[in-house]
Design a protein that fits this description.
Helices cover about 80% and strands about 0% of the residues. By secondary structure, it is mostly helical.
């Protein structure tokens, strides 16, 4: 993995995590938390879109879209888990 790839992952994770925290109010976890939620969300979103056969497009916009949708799902699941516990 090159430095450029790592920086790209971090930027996409930060943007997706921040967007998800705006969509799911009260879901913000700071910069590091947003990056983690965004990166995990990228995997979840990629799996969901592949499973349902939905194309998000290519490039940066497609990556941010998929990661944001996945991050929203992750934040909802975390919120539900906190209520149950």
């Amino acid at each position: 993995m090159t430095v450029e790839t790592l920086v790209t992952w971090l930027v996409i994770g930060a943007i997706a995590g921040w967007l998800a925290s705006v969509i799911v109010r009260g879901g913000s976890a700071g910069l590091i938390g947003n990056i983690i939620v965004g990166i995990v969300g990228a995997f979840v979103g990629g799996w969901l879109f592949h499973y349902f056969g939905i194309a998000t497009g290519t490039g940066l916009f497609g990556a941010i879209t998929g990661a944001t949708v996945g991050a929203v799902v992750v934040l909802f699941l975390v919120r539900i888990a906190r209520r149950v516990a």
